[in-house]
Write a structure and sequence with these properties.
Two copies of one chain form a homodimer. Chain A is of the alpha+beta class. Chain A is built from eleven helices and 13 strands. In chain A, helix 4 packs across helix 5, helix 4 packs across helix 8 and helix 4 crosses helix 9. At the A-B interface, helix 1, strand 2, strand 3, helix 2 and strand 4 of A face helix 1, strand 2, strand 3, helix 2 and strand 4 of B.
C-alpha cells in the first residue's frame, strides 16, 4: 500500500517540501465565509463576526493511534479531521476551518500522501470546513498527523464541561461501543492475515462496526437539532475515551456525581452480536472502549418532554450531588463505581490499543 | 539528560495521560483578555472583539528539527513556541494564545517533560501569550512537538506575502545567518564530544550565535514599532528558511522581481568571524541558512526617511518588475539569480540540517 511498485508512484525524495505542499494544497477549495486567507501565507486569517472563536488540536501517531496494516489512508485522513471537529461540536459550536500538519517518512510515495489528503478534503466537503493551513515535514519513523480545528459560536451558545447540576438528565447521541468492537474485529483479522495472507475474510456481518472504527462521523447535527428542539445543554463533552471517562470529566468539572443506568445505554444489535462472538461484554465496550465520537450532554429535567421521542438521543441517567459519587446502576440494581479505564497511551504501552484518537 | 538516574526522576509509565496533562497544565496562568476558556475543555474559547483571527501551526520532529544531544529541553520548548509566534508577527499581528501537542516516548521522565514545558511557559510569559490547549500522547520513537499559535489584528492592519509592487524597498530586521552558524558550531562540538566526552569546549566566543540557534526570539516588537513610525509594510514574511527563499516567496505571491544587494545584508561581527573559522561564506549563511526568525518586509519608497535611521532595520534592496527576475547584486556588481536553497527535510535526508524549524 505504501511503497507500491506501481509505475505511477512518485517517491517523496523526488519532491521538495514546497512541491509536496503545492501538490497537496492546489486542489483545496474555500467554502466558509469566515475564511479571509487560507493556505499560502505565514498564518491563516479568519473573521468571526460577533462570535467566540473555538480552537482544538490533536496529534495522531502511527503505531499509537492507528495501524496502517488495516487502515486505508483515505479513511485515516477523514478520521483525523473528524475526531477534531467532534471537539468543536462538543462545545455546541460549528466548525469552520482546520490546519493539518503531516510528518512523513521516505517510505511513503506522493500517491500515498495524496490518498491521505483526499480523505482530509473529503471530510472538508462533508462537514463544510476549509483547510486553511498546516505544515509538512519529514519524520524519522512513522506517519504523524496533527490537526487543529477552529470553529465559532455566539458567546451565550457555548456549552462547557462545567455547568451541570444535580437532577439534570444525562443524555447521549447515537449508540456506543461499536468503534471499539470494530477495532477488535480488525485486529483479529489482521492476526489471521499475518498467518495466511491469502485469506479473504467475510467482513460484511461487521460492516457497521468497521465503519464506526475506520470512518467515524462527528455529530455536527446535534447542536442545531438541540437548538431547534428549544433546549440548551447544561454541560457537554464528546465521547473519545469511553462513556465512563467522559461522565467522570463532567462530574469533575461540574463538581457533581452521577447515576448511569446499564439498561439505558444504547447499543447497536451488530455490536451486541460481535461482543458475544468475541466473548466481550458490550457494556464494557461502551463504558471503556472509546472512539464513538458521540456527544454526551446534560439537560434540565423539565426539557425531558422535548427530547424523549428523538430517535438519536437516549436518556441514560442523571446527575447527582457530589457526595453521592458516580455509579453505574446495573440491571440487577447493583451500584458499581464508574472508573476512567479509557485508553491511556502512556500507561498501556504503544500500539496495544492502536486505533484510538482522543 | 533524558533517562537520568536521579532519585527524583519519575518514569512516565507511572503516570497516566490525564495525570501527565494535569502535572503540566496546573501551573498555567491566563493573561490575555481574549482568552475565555483555556486548558480543560474540549476546545479553547477565545474572543477577538472586532478583529481578524490568525492561526498558524508547526510540527517539530526529533532528529529532523532538533537534536537532543545539544539542545536543552527548556530551550527547545521556548524555541518551539517562538517559531510559531514569528508566523503571527509576520502578518503584522499580535499573538495571544498557543496550543501545544506533545508526543513523548517512555525514555523521557516526567522531569524531562516538565523542563520542556517550563520553556514553553517561559515563552508564554515573555511574549504575554496564554497556553490554552493541546494534546499529550505517546510516540513510538522520538519527541514530537506540535504548536498552534493564535493571534489577532484589525482587518486593515493584516499584511500578507502578496501586496508589494516594483520600486518598494526591501527591508529586514536584525541580522542574518547567525542561527545557522550557531548550529554549525554545535554540530562541530558534538562531533568532538563523541570522540572525547571529557572535552570542555570554550563556547564563549560563539555566545551570540548559540543563543540565536538555541533560544531565538521572534520579532514581536516590529509590528508596533512600524505603526509608531507611521509605516505599514506592503508585504511581509518571517525568515525561517533563509533570506533567498523568503524573497522568492514574496516575489511569487506578489508577482514581482527583486534586487538584493550583498553589501547591505546585515551580519553580526561574531557571525563573520565564525564563518571565517568554519570556512563558510557568511552571506551564504544569511541567504540559505534560515532560522533567523527576523522579519522581511517591503515598504513604499516614500517611507524611506521614516525608517532609515532605525538601528534594527536595514534596507537591503528593492522590488522590481516581474520580468526583471530576482537577483543578488554582488559587491563587484555581478547579478546572481536568487535560489531557494532553504532547508528541505524531504530532499536533504533526516537530521542533515537538524535544528531547523519552519
Amino acid at each position: 500500500m505504501l511503497a507500491d511498485k506501481d509505475q505511477n508512484s512518485t517517491p517523496l525524495t523526488e519532491l521538495g517540501e514546497f512541491d509536496l505542499i503545492k501538490a497537496l494544497t492546489e486542489r483545496i477549495q474555500l467554502r466558509d465565509p469566515s475564511t479571509r486567507k487560507g493556505v499560502g501565507d505565514d498564518a491563516a486569517v479568519l473573521h468571526f463576526e460577533d462570535a467566540d472563536t473555538l480552537v482544538s488540536t490533536d496529534l495522531l501517531v502511527e503505531g499509537v493511534h492507528f495501524n496502517l496494516a488495516y487502515t486505508p489512508l483515505e479513511h485515516l485522513g477523514y478520521k483525523a479531521v473528524v475526531v477534531n471537529l467532534s471537539d468543536i461540536y462538543a462545545m455546541n459550536a460549528q466548525a469552520s476551518q482546520i490546519l493539518v500538519s503531516l510528518g512523513v517518512s521516505n517510505r511513503f510515495t506522493l500517491e500515498a500522501i495524496e490518498a491521505l489528503y483526499a480523505g482530509i478534503r473529503m471530510a472538508g466537503r462533508h462537514y463544510n470546513i476549509d483547510v486553511v493551513g498546516g505544515d509538512t515535514t519529514s519524520s524519522a519513523s512513522g506517519l504523524l498527523i496533527g490537526v487543529t480545528a477552529v470553529g465559532y459560536a455566539k458567546r451565550e451558545e457555548v456549552v462547557y464541561r462545567k455547568g451541570t447540576k444535580p437532577m439534570d438528565l444525562l443524555v447521549v447521541s447515537g449508540d456506543l461501543g461499536a468503534a471499539y468492537l470494530g477495532l477488535q474485529i480488525l485486529e483479529r483479522e489482521n492476526e489471521v492475515f499475518k498467518v495466511n495472507p491469502h485469506t479473504q475474510p467475510d467482513l460484511s456481518p461487521y460492516a457497521y462496526l468497521l465503519e464506526r472504527q475506520l470512518k467515524p462521523e462527528a455529530r455536527q447535527d446535534i447542536p442545531p437539532r438541540l437548538a431547534k428542539l428549544g433546549v440548551k445543554p447544561t454541560a457537554m463533552i464528546d465521547i473519545s475515551d469511553g462513556l465512563s471517562s467522559e461522565i467522570l470529566h463532567l462530574c469533575d468539572q461540574s463538581d457533581v456525581g452521577a447515576r448511569l443506568y446499564e439498561d439505558k445505554i444504547p447499543l447497536d444489535p451488530q455490536a451486541i452480536r460481535a461482543a458475544e462472538e468475541l466473548n466481550l461484554n458490550p457494556i464494557t465496550a461502551a463504558l471503556n472502549g472509546g472512539e464513538d465520537y458521540e456527544l454526551l450532554f446534560t439537560l434540565k429535567a423539565q426539557d425531558y418532554d422535548k427530547i424523549k421521542d428523538h430517535p438519536n438521543l437516549s436518556v441514560i441517567g442523571h446527575i447527582a450531588e457530589k457526595d453521592k459519587g458516580a455509579y453505574l446502576i446495573s440491571r440487577d440494581g447493583g451500584a458499581i463505581p464508574l472508573q476512567a479505564q479509557g485508553w491511556d497511551a502512556l500507561k498501556s504501552g504503544q500500539g496495544k490499543k492502536a486505533g484510538k484518537a482522543e
